[in-house]
């Protein structure tokens, strides 16, 4: 039996990493294309600067959709199960991404081209709103009690690996197409590849078992009839903590994922392939820092890593943008590495911390909503706002201050975390009355102020 459990745990670990990697590949393929080609292909009738702003703004459409995805997928994830929702969200993301690759351009069908693009981006947002929390729950709830931080890292590394694959796909296509070919049809290839990757992820996710904590909760009939309402009624403080800590993380992430690529290629005139290689290198460092921080989560606690990571984000935000603003590739490598260190420190403990903020019966809903709200405040407007600030003030310094401000808000939220905010403390779980399902959640040690 023990060997069977270990085998299932290994499958879940692999499925979490593979599934989230594919999900974020799809998500980032869009963000990369928005930075490189959508302004000319879908908004070509506009002034170039306005077209670029509009293209970057479509990235934020997904953040409008995320709360809807969080509400719907979170509800059924708490009622029906985590596994079914993960399979559904992966399929929705894959189909939406593939269809973007098929879209006619503005020159071919006029205004319907950007309208359909925004609709498909909205569907991606629905998927993203429910995907991350489900993957985090499956990984952490299956994990051995002493390794829940590390296992949560299997979900977190899906972000930089997905970015590497998305960036790599555009690098590959750029290598065998001319500029005209790339803008005409080459950019579509990464979107078409998505359908094959989704088929792999779909197969892997159907082969894992449901979360044991969810199964135990259902057996004990501790489910909520309206988990979302329960979150807003009983868990406002954990929801606020999750939202505000993710604000800074998501803001910094979208600086790496989208804004730097757009800023360097469209405004500074740096070669597309050069900047894509900077992203790949930064993502490799990002993976290493996430895994190290995930491992440390089980030893020093999520709160300590959050505080260190957000303090570092505040410290490096302005230098990061000033280095990028030089337009020199060597300095851009340094800039991206600095920011991904702060990102990795806060992303490493995130899965375990978010899972520990809410009891099993409302956990999918609570974690999904905190993730969605944090993304709306942080990453959602970031590429658009940063692009506007650069155009308005003609200086990267203002963008650096913008990133630092987000980090400062998240730093304050991390400092405010108390022992009772996180469940399953190393020194004993803080149970809520009548919720014995929380006794299974030995997750994140934390040192309270």
**Chain oligomer state:** single chain
CATH architecture: Up-down Bundle
Beta-strand content bin: under 5%
CATH topology: Growth Hormone, Chain: A
Order of helices and strands: HHHHHHHHHHHHHHHHHHHHH
Shape: globular
| N- to C-terminal distance | 42 Å
Count of domain modules: 1
CATH superfamily label: MFS general substrate transporter like domains
Number of helical stretches of at least 4 residues: 21
Give the C-alpha Rg: 21 Å
Structural class by secondary-structure content: mainly alpha
Could you name the ranges where pLDDT drops below 50 across 5 or more consecutive residues?
424-449
pLDDT averaged residue by residue? 83
Considering DSSP H and I runs of 4 or more, what fraction of the residues is helical? over 70%
Name of the level-1 CATH class:
Mainly Alpha
For the report, how would you describe the main beta sheet?
none
Total strands: the figure is 0
